[in-house]
Amino acid sequence: MDIEKLRRQHGELLLAIGGLRELVQAGAREHATAIHDQLVAISSAIKLHLAVEDRVLYPAMEHAADSDVARTSRQFREEMGGLAAAYAAFAGRWSLSTRIAQDPQGFRDDANAVFKALHQRIQRENKELYPLAERV
Hints:
0% strand; mainly alpha; Hemerythrin-like; Hemerythrin domain-containing protein; 87% helix
């Protein structure tokens, strides 16, 4: 399976998260509107990426003849549910730039936690899941 598009999306997400981090470091209150706009863009990219994984990647891997590939795919899919829910809750809490401006430290703390988990997930997919997907 060709997963180059998924790898590219990972890279784009990491760049976008880096841009968000720079805005937050420059001042969450002062840049609340730009942060919100970046967060909307990141959320859209995540939704698209997850849709591709759910509709194409996981089904193909779970029907693979190799039981290790199928098992790993199921495990990753199950784990993703918790992270996707945590991200959705985060995005919902910070869906207005005024909320970010009113509680910049709360946003910073929340963003650090969710994006750390997302970064770890991306790293695991790149190192564990995608090499297996290339065998399908």
